[in-house]
Give the backbone structure.
Amino acid sequence: MKKHRRGLRLAACLLTLAMCAALLCSCGRTGKTDDYTAAMPVIVVGSDNYPPFNYMSTDGTPTGIDVELATEAFGRLGYRVKFVTIDWEKKKELVENDTIDCIWGSFTMDGREEEYQWAGPYLYSRQVIAVASDSDIQTFDDLLGKNVGVQDTTRAAELFFHTIDSALPEVKQVNCFATTEDMFAALRKGYVDAIAGHEALLNEFIINGKGKYRLLDESPYISKIGIAFQKGTHEELTQKINGLIKEMSKDGTIGSIAEKYGLDAEKVVIRGGSDEK
């Protein structure tokens, strides 16, 4: 009996030692992985709060279409990404003084080709207009004499200020807001008759509104979005990103991430990195 108990104790000891060894090996591997990640060069990406492209999740971590795309693309290139929420009006100043390395936040390239060193385009951007469900505004022409809300320094703002060609009529007043939350609040409270912005952004607003708002059928502008670096810098990196955009388009990465956040991949993904849908 004693010999049997000693055998059991020996087996138990050997099992415990084996478990400890496995745990130590596992910890060692994790530590090496963490050290490797920490040693990766860091790219600082700037964007404002712009769901579903860039926003904070409920646990306080950056999330969204562009967050996932940036993490995947720079990860494939051996970079670790740090996301910084910026004042969108100061984006060019921040990228030029090296506060951030690039702007990656549903940023339209069209008309800004000479202002930045661009990578992309990687998605089509469709501007749309939202109104209250019971509004008498049905078409662009109905916006004549109305008050419209936009986020400042966005493509929608440029459309209503007619700094670029558009089919939009002269409205009574264009109200510019610093954040999308302020713009949404203005429509909810009736301070403006309509708001304009990116399709994905306003789609989310309408879904959360539970039937209180709708989109006009027409789109005043379809453009291409990309990643902006300071002009004359990061030429080699942008070339590598362009190669990755083609790769991620072909392997379905861009499409799957876009659809995860409610976009139609067939309509928004730029296939093969070209201008062909």
Notes: Residues 50 and 180 are 7 Å apart (CA to CA). Residues 1-30, 273-277 have pLDDT under 50 and may be disordered. The two ends are 79 Å apart (CA to CA). DSSP finds nine helices and eleven strands in the chain.
